């Protein structure tokens, strides 16, 4: 199908993208919750996948809770360097937070080999030892979610908030459900879809709304 090329200034491309998303949602008869629309639309913007309008799940009050954590200086911990790169560190640092990823840490790799678990599993354990509040943005490894839930079940640690959007086939759906069945505050994408770009997009959606003074 031929499409006409739109003459759009670079600075206007993102705004036009969100206009198209809103138009498509309207055509499909999808009405997003007003307090979550900005975040769901950014996930769609990142993926061009409208399934996120149906599959993103939120625990009660999780978005204000995430904003509260960020304002208190919370760090964000990711399970990939791609997500670490994608999160807007400038906005986060204005509130006193940093982004961490321990997947390339040599000690993490050594411990993972010794124990026969994934680096993602051990990296979550290492991150739990960081001082202060933490938001976990998991976009790749379901074992990261399993590690967080295991520490929670053992009574050794409770995550402040989990963004769980790993992508794939092995244990992905089950790991997401584990978090949703707990009382850990969460933003989860049900099903197999997700990814590091989605994890970063969710973080940025909240950071940008905070910067605009909307939450």
List the helices and strands and how they pair.
Blueprint: H1 13-27, H2 37-47, H3 52-55, E1 56-58, H4 62-71, E2 75-78, H5 81-86, H6 89-93, E3 99-101, H7 106-115, H8 119-127, E4 134-138, H9 142-154, E5 161-164, H10 172-180, E6 186-189, H11 196-211
Parallel strand pairs: 2-3, 2-4, 4-5, 5-6
Antiparallel strand pairs: 1-6
Helix pairs in contact: 1-2, 2-11, 7-8, 8-9, 9-10
Note down, in words, how this protein is organized:
The protein has helices at about 15-25, 35-45, 50-55, 60-70, 80-85, 90-95, 105-115, 120-125, 140-155, 170-180, 195-210, and strands at about 55-60, 75-80, 100, 135-140, 160-165, 185-190. It is of the alpha/beta class and about 220 residues long. The longest helix has 16 residues, at about 195-210. It has a single domain, classed as Rossmann fold, CATH 3.40.50.10230. The chain starts with 12 loop residues before the first helix and ends with a helix. Helix 1 crosses helix 2, helix 2 crosses helix 11 (about 195-210) and helix 8 crosses helix 9. Strands 1-6-5-4-2-3 form a 6-stranded mixed β-sheet, with helices on both faces.
